[in-house]
Amino acid sequence: MKAAKRILLIVLCGFLSNSVLADDQSSTVSYTVEIESPQDQQTFPSATQSIPVTLSITPTLQANDLVTLYVDGQASGDPVNSTSITLPALERGSHTLQAKVTHSSGEDAGESDTITIYQQRVSKLLPPADIPIDPLNQPSPDSAQPVSLNTTPHQPG
Fold first, then answer.
1. Could you tell me if 36 and 21 lie in one domain?
2. CA separation for the pair 33, 42 (Å, rounded)
3. What share of the chain is helix, strand, coil (3-state, %, to 5)?
4. How many domains does the chain have?
5. Are residues 19 and 70 in the same domain?
6. What is the rounded CA–CA span in Å between residue 59 and residue 39?
7. 156 pLDDT band (50/70/90 cuts)?
8. Residue 101 in 3-state DSSP?
9. According to the per-residue pLDDT averaged within each range, which of 25-29, 43-47, 98-102, 148-152 is highest?
10. Are residues 10 and 70 in the same domain?
11. pLDDT at 18 (0 to 100)
12. Domain that holds residue 14
């Protein structure tokens, strides 16, 4: 009976030490993180409703480690265990993107370089696209109205 307890104790201790080692290994993994798309300096037209972001993470992202995408230094959404993230529509102008990986313990595990992207939007100051624009504020030939000139001199009184 003592031999059976001793074997059980050895197996149990071995199991516990292996699970502790596995946890320690995941918290010591350091990742190389790159933003594959979009490209640095890429411009998105005004019709763009969302921007797919694809990351390259080496070694493979472990189950408990999470990725946070930062837009202009602010977290964009909750951390995810994925190398694909979709950004919602961005405001007009330039924006910086950076991805960071953290372990389940909250410890930093790697980050990408920061890239800059540009989002175009139609100006709110411009009229809708179906209205012709004349920089001299002259009527367009399509909207010209016949003009009658009054040749009668003005009479005071």
1. no
2. 19
3. 20, 30, 50
4. 2
5. no
6. 22
7. low
8. strand
9. 98-102
10. no
11. 43
12. 1-29
